[in-house]
Amino acid sequence: MNKLKEAVVTSPAIRPIDLTSKAEVGLCVDTSYKAVGFYIYQVDEKDPTKRYYVRFGSITMNEREARFSQPKRELYGLLRALKACQYWLIGIRNLVVETDAQYIKGMLSNPGMGPNATINQWIEDILMFHFTLRHVKGSTFPADGLSRRDPQPGDEIHPDLKDYELEDHGPLKFEVAEGTSTLPKEIDEFKNKIDSRGGYMYTLATSIDDFTVELEDARSHEQELRDLYLAQENTDETICQFLKATPLIPDLEYKFDPNKREDYPEKQWTSSGLAQDERLPHVRTWLRNVRYRPEGLNDKQYLTFKQYCRNFFLDKEGRLYRRSTEGDHPLVVDKEH
């Protein structure tokens, strides 16, 4: 009890960030299946070993979030902490985010390589903040206690994640904290474990051999249906009809010429259709670089543009496809065809 009393008496009071100081500002984040724990501090400008604490917080997980895989949960926790502290962190140019970056560093260094659109959206939103990522050993992390608590009456209510716009700050900066020996993993080592509870998977065939198994299964199923039908002994009478006709061969003028470009019938298109055609080159550019922003768009228009771009994707050969919930993604053909 005496130690507790002494800690209460000697503990420094929280204080606001000194925006005139060039001292480092830190956000410490730790995520467990129970909650996201975080706190903000500022280093003393004269004594870097001394810290002044600004804010403490904890966001509890619901049942669905608690079932996230560890990589997905840590990425989600970092975004929730950044969003919750956005009011205090906007404008801070010397921000350092301290967390166990075993999985986070690989994901943030490879935007667009997440397993689905949700993960890519979280990565994209995190990179809108300007900070240096510092890898800290999880077992010695002070924010660990804030992430191990259950929901309590009177807890601060944090809004759900929503789209928001911030300035783009370029590639991620990264460093390893002193005393941390375990380095973060490369994304290829764990990307299939980020979100392993998906409902389905689709792959792109690259050769005829990829269809061998499917063709054999289809033929086997067709033969089973044929045998079942013949076993019923109620086949219909077959009537053969023969037609005598001279096959017509198209003239050479209809032969396909790859160098010939047909006129694009723009008169048949609505103004909305023409606008979508003009937008497609920008969509291609954004899919190659998610930081691309077309000129002349305000924040609201840019948000709408990004949401539209997520309806498409590029394959390995750079061909543009429109996403389909049925899995049969249609190919987008350019105006010149």
From TrEMBL:
Name of this chain's protein: Reverse transcriptase RNase H-like domain-containing protein
Keyword Hydrolase attributed: yes
Chain segments annotated as coiled-coil in the UniProt record: none
Any one GO molecular function term: hydrolase activity
Swiss-Prot/TrEMBL keywords: Endonuclease, Hydrolase, Nuclease, Nucleotidyltransferase, RNA-directed DNA polymerase, Transferase
Domain Reverse transcriptase RNase H-like: 24-125
InterPro entries registered for this protein in UniProt: DNA/RNA_pol_sf, RT_RNaseH
